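Sanity check record (used in CI):
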Amino acid sequence: MAAKAEKSTPATGSPADLKEKKKERILDLSRYMDKLIRVKFTGGREAAGILKGYDPLLNIVLDNTVEYLRDSEDSFKLSEDTRQLGLVVCRGTAVVLICPADGMEAIPNPFIQPE
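Expected output for U6 snRNA-associated Sm-like protein LSm7:
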């Protein structure tokens, strides 16, 4: 008669230990709740607003949202023009970048050689 195979536990510990560990997310947006953030989307659009909610798929809700419009002559540059959008639900599959608005500033390109 063959012996019963015992269930093996992962190398990290017993199943009880795994239940106690909280699943850690790669991107923790909870610290940015009710704070101003800036979001870049696929296609080049950019917006800034107050983070009111999010889910694991990175769908986000922004309030008092402002969209930064692109320059009509060069679509890669942002113009000084903005558009007020108000309350916005952003689909997570379109989000490329999320950053706090107060922690972002333009810097000169360090790779350009002075002539």
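The beta strands are 36-41, 46-54, 60-70, 78-90, 95-100. If this sentence no longer matches the regenerated tokens, the check is flagged for review.
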